[in-house]
Design a protein that fits this description.
Order of helices and strands: HHHHHEEHEEEEEEEEEEEE
Helix content: 25-40%
Strand content: 15-25%
Number of helices: 6
Radius of gyration: 22 Å
Shape: elongated
Distance between the termini: 39 Å
Largest sheet: 4 strands, mixed
């Protein structure tokens, strides 16, 4: 189902509410906002009765169908009536991005959900990786906002064995105002277009991305070498997993988040990547985040 029209309607309503709240005439402003609130309460009462009747008779099939419809799901969330528990929705979001984390030798575990705050634990190569903040903001945050927009905050901690004594929690806030500016997944083409055993530079939405396929796993990085700023387009893949920069000679382990063997403080900038069931590669492009 195409939810484009639903998104447009939601955006239109939000825009009208913002304009109503900004009216200079206090009487007109209070009247407009009051009408909106009255309608919200009216439809909310109706939805609550519908959800209650469905819950008494449904085996879970209809509830799942309602939850999968973007517009209906948005309305149910607005009235705190979503049929799928928030923990299940957050877990679904993590399962969606797990292939990307796994492709970089990492994983994420749901620790707890308390008072609208999701606590996660990064494991494997994602733990202690200088690019963890980018991984969270571009992949996990995006998925959680889609699956559970009622979550207010996400906190991620590294696995206990990898946490330095002075480090704390990485914190992500999920303000609604950022939704329109958040980087979106962009199509990068079909999997067969990414050759095996050698890097391939492709332009996605006008931005260069370096793709590497090792066996049946796919990786995406920004093509600039952090050691010399040269392009890795002509880099040689050594020992099956290491990209060797043709300019400065630094080697970067593709499987371990692009870490440099010669200079551990250097690392490539990974780009979140997902391979869909349709066989198409998608990447999340956004402003670089310092490690």
């Amino acid at each position: 189902m195409d939810d484009t029209r639903a998104r447009e309607l939601i955006a239109d309503v939000e825009g009208l509410l913002e304009r109503a709240e900004a009216l200079p005439d206090p009487v007109a402003r209070d009247t407009a906002v009051g009408v909106a609130q009255g309608l919200l309460e009216l439809y909310g009462e109706g939805l609550e009765r519908i959800v209650g009747a469905v819950a008494e008779r449904d085996d879970g099939t209809l509830a799942r169908a309602l939850a999968d419809d973007e517009l209906v799901s948005h309305l149910l969330l607005l009235h705190d009536l979503h049929p799928v528990p928030v923990a299940e929705r957050v877990q679904g979001a993590l399962d969606e991005v797990r292939p990307y984390l796994d492709s970089h030798g990492g994983n994420v575990e749901l620790v707890a959900i308390e008072d609208g705050v999701v606590r996660l634990r990064m494991e494997g190569s994602c733990s202690g990786c200088p690019s963890s903040s980018m991984t969270l903001s571009l992949a996990i945050e995006d998925a959680i906002r889609t699956w559970a927009p009622d979550i207010e905050e996400v906190r991620a901690e590294e696995a206990p064995a990898a946490v330095p004594a002075a480090s704390g929690l990485l914190q992500i806030e999920l303000p609604q105002a950022r939704a329109s500016s958040h980087p979106a997944w962009s199509m990068a083409g079909g999997v067969p277009e990414v050759p095996g055993g050698a890097p391939a530079l492709k332009h996605v939405s006008g931005e260069p991305v370096l793709f590497v396929r090792l066996d049946e796993r796919y990786y995406a990085y920004r093509p600039a070498c952090p050691g010399c700023e040269g392009s890795l387009e002509d880099a040689v893949l050594e020992e099956r997993t290491r990209l060797r920069c043709p300019a400065c000679g630094n080697g970067y382990d593709v499987r371990r988040a692009g870490r440099c063997a010669e200079a551990p403080e250097l690392h490539l900038e990974p780009v979140p990547l997902l391979v869909g069931e349709d066989g198409l590669v998608r990447v999340a492009l956004g402003s670089p985040v310092a490690g």
